[in-house]
């Protein structure tokens, strides 16, 4: 008997035997539901036999048989009623547990989101994507009147990657029928938030309406994705609308898991707790930095992967530079708490960064991961996991703390057939094509290629996906390959940047000759690039299909 927990109130398994009833009682269950009709197998006890054994063990019993492949709405409603009326926790079984799990999924469809239901069932080892449409429709089988949309190319996500790849596709094939699916009203230039937190950019310069950026001729479906049906070339939206596609591009970005740090959500934006990872909080960072005259300033970095791995320390350098300029730096205790074991993943840039750490008197603490914050008390709890040492915890006081939240793939990606074991979209790292579904590509932060998750990476990836998708339409193999390029302009002081540019394996991939701009050194030229050149490149080139310094390299077809 392999018991799998769906919720605190329901666990399931495959076929049980008579002597399992006493075991279930000892494990705390109070009721048993049988969803397997009698007579499916010669060695299967009848429900009457199971009922007698259950009652002898002091368990309530309900027989609610389901024929394989015929889970009716009436049976799902009856199961919902049973979960309400039977004493819990309840144990349900059928041949494998799948029918019981399906019943629960449909019974809960009016109360829980598709993503929550698929996540709970996947965690228990059951794939419910086959009934995702019914779940999205409140547990009821959709009728023929459901209006489906159909496009040649559907793009999930209207962020940097989504708009850029749509524009690159249109630049190659103007008559291509493309739809972008994204529920957001506003599109953000997120690389600018570090500069907002340093008082360099105004917040308004990092935001534009989504409608103003969708390329001309591209449909915008303002909705959230609930589930994928790659075997049917379909995407299910909230409300059970089904969008069909010939080819799919998945680039919804990643999820910021603010709630993974106890107490953080309640105190963000007050009590000295801030983050440049949110549009509305970056101005508060600058407010705190300007107001701090002394005390402890903590800057955190969670475990990888995260969006822009250099951003946590960028905030530290720019803050320290402001305190240095105002003559209060020696009054500030700067602590950088890094869940990883190195300052930066590409060693060539570390010496320059370490010189600024020394200049600002910052203390580096490796293998420190933020677990909890008490905002009113201004205390932060860190888990310390140094290799070959016993894990410990430490509580530190702070006057201000810049928090970078843990990050992961969006929930609707994690529970989908597109995800790898860690929840990221599973692609070939060169062609960016899905490993299992030939008509699906992915780019940006959500896919599992081992590159830096930055806007600069998406700028390079968009033309590659566009080139390979168009080649596929023309019956050709992949034409372009991605070398893992990513860029991280490390703002070490106002007016100077260490321009880190690298690809797979930490190989340096500079855009300029060393005599013009040496990225391993802090330079004024790199600052001008970040402050004055990159924003218009983003808005006026990348998002419009103008691939300046981003033309894809050709590869031979496999």
Automatic annotation (TrEMBL):
The keyword Flavoprotein applies. InterPro entries: BLH_phosphatase-like (IPR005939), FAD/NAD-bd_sf (IPR036188), FAD/NAD-binding_dom (IPR023753), Prot-tyrosine_phosphatase-like (IPR029021), Sulphide_quinone_reductase (IPR015904). Its cofactor is FAD. The keyword Oxidoreductase applies. Residues 152-264 form the FAD/NAD(P)-binding domain. One of its GO terms (molecular function) is sulfide:quinone oxidoreductase activity. Keywords: FAD, Flavoprotein, Oxidoreductase, Quinone, Transit peptide. Pfam families: BLH_phosphatase (PF04273), Pyr_redox_2 (PF07992). GO terms for biological process: sulfide oxidation, using sulfide:quinone oxidoreductase. Residues 2-109 form the Beta-lactamase hydrolase-like protein phosphatase-like domain. This is Sulfide:quinone oxidoreductase. It comes from Celeribacter halophilus. The lineage of its organism: Bacteria, Pseudomonadati, Pseudomonadota, Alphaproteobacteria, Rhodobacterales.
């Amino acid at each position: 008997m392999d018991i799998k927990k769906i919720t605190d109130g329901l666990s399931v398994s495959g076929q049980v035997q008579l002597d399992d009833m006493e075991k279930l009682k000892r494990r705390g269950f109070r009721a048993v539901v049988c969803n397997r009709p009698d007579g499916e197998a010669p060695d299967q006890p009848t429900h009457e036999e199971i009922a007698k054994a259950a009652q002898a063990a002091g368990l309530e019993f309900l027989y609610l048989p389901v024929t394989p492949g015929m889970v009716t709405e009436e049976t799902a409603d009856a199961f919902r009623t049973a979960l309400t009326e039977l004493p819990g926790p309840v144990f349900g079984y059928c041949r494998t547990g799948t029918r019981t799990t399906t019943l629960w999924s449909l019974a809960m469809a009016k109360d829980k989101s598709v993503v929550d239901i698929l996540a709970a069932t996947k965690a228990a080892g059951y794939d419910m994507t086959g009934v995702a449409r019914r779940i999205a429709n409140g547990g009821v089988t959709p009728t023929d009147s459901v209006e489906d949309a159909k496009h040649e190319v559907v793009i999930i996500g209207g962020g940097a990657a989504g708009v850029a790849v749509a524009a690159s596709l249109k630049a190659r094939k103007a008559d291509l029928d493309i739809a972008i699916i994204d529920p957001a009203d506003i599109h953000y230039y997120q690389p600018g938030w570090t500069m907002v937190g340093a008082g360099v950019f105004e917040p308004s310069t990092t935001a534009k309406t989504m409608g103003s950026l969708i390329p001309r001729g591209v449909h915008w479906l303002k909705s959230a994705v609930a589930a994928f049906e790659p075997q049917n070339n379909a995407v299910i939206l909230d409300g059970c609308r089904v969008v069909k596609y010939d080819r799919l591009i998945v680039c919804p970005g990643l999820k910021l898991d603010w709630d993974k740090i106890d107490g953080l959500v309640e105190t963000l934006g007050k009590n000295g707790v801030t983050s440049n990872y949110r549009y509305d909080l970056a101005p508060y960072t600058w407010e705190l930095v300007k107001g701090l005259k002394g005390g402890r300033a903590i800057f955190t970095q969670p475990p990888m992967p995260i969006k822009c791995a250099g951003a946590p320390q960028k905030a530290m350098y720019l803050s320290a530079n402001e305190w240095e300029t105002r003559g209060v730096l020696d009054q500030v205790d700067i602590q950088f708490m890094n869940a990883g074991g190195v300052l930066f993943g590409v060693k060539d840039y570390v010496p320059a960064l370490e010189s600024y750490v020394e200049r600002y008197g910052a203390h580096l603490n490796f293998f420190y991961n933020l677990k909890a914050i008490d905002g009113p008390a201004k205390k932060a709890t860190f888990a310390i996991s140094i290799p070959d040492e016993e894990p410990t915890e430490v509580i530190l006081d702070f006057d201000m703390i810049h928090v970078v939240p843990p990050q992961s793939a969006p929930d609707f990606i994690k529970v989908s057939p597109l995800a790898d074991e860690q929840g990221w979209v599973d692609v070939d790292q060169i062609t960016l094509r899905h490993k299992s579904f030939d008509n699906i590509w992915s780019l940006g932060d959500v896919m599992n290629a081992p590159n830096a998750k930055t806007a600069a990476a998406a700028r390079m990836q968009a033309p590659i996906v566009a080139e390979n998708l168009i080649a596929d339409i023309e019956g050709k193999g992949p034409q372009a390959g991605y070398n893992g390029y990513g860029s991280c302009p490390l703002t070490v002081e106002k007016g100077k940047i260490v321009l880190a540019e690298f690809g797979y394996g930490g190989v340096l991939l500079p855009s300029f000759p060393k005599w013009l701009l040496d990225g391993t050194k802090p330079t004024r030229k790199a600052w001008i690039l970040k402050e004055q050149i990159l924003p218009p490149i983003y808005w006026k080139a990348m998002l419009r299909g103008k691939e300046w310094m981003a033309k894809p390299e050709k590869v031979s077809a496999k």
